[in-house]
């Protein structure tokens, strides 16, 4: 599809949403007050009960009502648990994303709908598999072996090795993208960690824990550094975690860096639950240190402070860097698990920093000026990325909170339209050299390796994912159940935008596959796995759609794409995960083909 055509189609769909909003407002104005009172007094339920309306059932793709197939979901009747993690599609409550570990699973009604549309039962064991599709399997008992015994975390590596890794990290793309430590402050931490004492003081233990956590982070991408010795990241993590009881007795920048690096390590390894736990602890330490408030305005980042003020200046700037990194992870974890965020926007200073605010003093870095210029657009802390995260937080709060489930169709469609406008305003403000397109064309050739940085690639994934999240919320509107024609046309267009954004996610992954750095695999793999669920639901909803066959082929391409995202040798648990993805997507593709065949048979039998 040409870009002009896709943009014209998008405009028309948005116009339909606008008309649906007006119709919903009219319907809301004519609603009986008693009915409205009954809606507000509904109590939560664990079932996806049929909406109490007299209107016709939502039509299937072949035009037949679906009342006999599955009960439609009424947004006023809510299941218990984490609301942001609930899966709705075209008026049906499909299931949940577990608030414990992020696994998507289909509800009983979701399974019934699959059966009714595909004509066959789903292999539930395959669909549930061993865990979430964006989380590797990590046996919890191995996290803290010998915890009651270890008090010093074991022996640190040779100091020269630590200093070498620090220099390599400071001059690396990862170190600039994720400034988890301040170079000068960490030199002080190293000094304390290697201080010749009995090693039992809290200060020394905290410093040792920070060094172990840093080595764990370095282990994620050490293969890029051929000169450095091999690091056992898991052993370093266990050593740092064995010291946490003592580390958390102090509230300082060293403790914060330690806990944050542990959270980042687990998230980058696909250990979503463990990462979320450490992230929550990091947020509490961050608040205690005042990192959620901007106190750096008195001294600009590029200003060289006086010697006496240098440490204080560095601590303040590092706190803000860690705040923004924590803020980004917080909103990501919330959407992926369905759990409430740990950081409340209303209690934080979210004033965006300047483009180069986080760059450390020139003497800290081993990169060239051109390398640092490039870093201004590769950092996870660049303003474009932070602004998108703020929008993500607003989407979660406005469309997927407990309060959001009480909204009328008119309120929901208004919020969808406003958030869509805000996301589009963000998109047009991004530098044209890496600005995401409205839709990513199917036939786009592979992007040249190195054309987009890792953070720019993430921006594209995030944009399409958030577009899908915004419009997927229309699946909860009551009009799916009451059959309001004008409103239903609008929400159908909104849902179509969600499906198209999911397709764009997979098309973009296919084109940018060589740019996905292996260290970010477990963070990036979430996007295609989320997209396939939306595309699969649409196959069931519209099996006779002209693009249905192509969507089945698109689903079938996902396992190969996932394999291509990782270049290094996989661990045994990761191999199990890749096989699980193969089985999961294979089952969805099979059910999609069954739905297409059944719809064709039913259509021919009329």
Automatic annotation (TrEMBL):
CDD domains, from UniProt? fungal_TF_MHR (cd12148)
Q: List the GO biological process terms.
A: DNA-templated transcription
> What's a single GO CC term here?
nucleus
Q: Which UniProt keywords apply?
A: DNA-binding, Nucleus, Transcription, Transcription regulation
Compositional bias, Low complexity, is annotated for 45-68
Localisation? Nucleus
Q: Which Pfam families does the record cross-reference, listed alphabetically?
A: Fungal_trans
Q: Which domain of life, per UniProt? A: Eukaryota
Principal location listed in the UniProt entry: nucleus
Give every Xylanolytic transcriptional activator regulatory domain span: 275-359
Start and end residues of each stretch annotated as Disordered: 21-72
Q: Can you provide one Gene Ontology molecular function annotated for this UniProt record?
A: zinc ion binding
Protein's name in the database = Putative transcriptional regulatory protein
